[in-house]
Every structure is written in structure tokens, then in C-alpha cells.
Amino acid sequence: MSEEKKEKIVIIGTHGGDDPERASLPFVVGNAALAMDVDVVVALQGNGVTLAKKGCYEHIFAGGLDPLKKLADTFLELGGKIWVCTPCIKERQITKEMLVDNVELMAGGKLVQACIEADAVLNY
């Protein structure tokens, strides 16, 4: 009896507090995918890495959506993974100690591999 391959999706988030709606959408879609038993990685790049700073996402609200803190906390509770671009945080002088718990650092190769293996890749 063979086990079915679980579907995987990678969602790339490139917006921070500058665009609350686009900052929130990776987690809205990620939570929907997790509810459908899909493996999900949200990869934060560019200005999106600022969302992973301690104390940041508590202050981001997009009209018509749950607060980003609730979306991100739910995402992690449901088993989603958040990856943060190492070169992007270095450029913004953000250290690993400044990041929220439960995020992983990544560089281009890790993201490319995840995208190759994914059933779908979205970008916000």
C-alpha cells in the first residue's frame, strides 16, 4: 500500500507594513491551504522580512481581514512554516535575535529547491 504524496505550496511574501493587505494575504491563503491538509511554507523576502521582527506584526491590520498577528499565530499553530531570507535581513540590519520564534532562515538555494518540489508557488 503506497502512501499518497501530500501537496505542497510555497507562498512568497515581499511586503511588510507598507502594504498591510499584501502582507496579510500570504497568511490568509496559507491558513486556507493548511485547513485543506496542504504543507505550506511562507517565505518572506525583500521588505516582507520586516514582518518577522519581534513586535512588528502586532501593528499590521488590513481592512476586511483578521489582524496579521492572529493570522500568523494561527498559521504557525496549524503547522505552517515561515522562512526568512538571510540576505534580506542582513541588508536591513536585522539579526536572528530580533526575529520572532519559530521562523527559519533561508537563502536562495533552499527557496529554489522548495519551489521545484512544490505543487504551486504564489507571490504577494
**Secondary-structure element order, as H and E?**
EHEHEHEHE
Order of strands, widest sheet:
4-3-2-1-5
Coarse shape: globular
The tally of domains stands at 1
What is the helix tally?
4
What is the CATH architecture descriptor? 3-Layer(aba) Sandwich
CATH topology: Hypothetical Protein Ychn, Chain: A
Which structural class do you get from the secondary structure elements?
Answer: alpha/beta
Write the layout of secondary structure elements.
Blueprint: E1 8-13, H1 20-35, E2 39-44, H2 68-77, E3 81-85, H3 86-91, E4 103-106, H4 108-117, E5 120-123
Parallel strand pairs: 1-2, 1-5, 2-3, 3-4
Helix pairs in contact: 1-2
Describe the structure.
With 124 residues, the protein is an alpha/beta fold. The protein has one domain (8-123): Hypothetical Protein Ychn, Chain: A. It is 34% helix and 20% strand. It has four helices and five strands, in the order E-H-E-H-E-H-E-H-E. It has helices at 20-35, 68-77, 86-91, 108-117, and strands at residues 8-13, 39-44, 81-85, 103-106, 120-123. The chain has a five-stranded parallel sheet with strand order 4-3-2-1-5, sandwiched between helices. Helix 1 (20-35) packs parallel to helix 2. The mean pLDDT is 95.
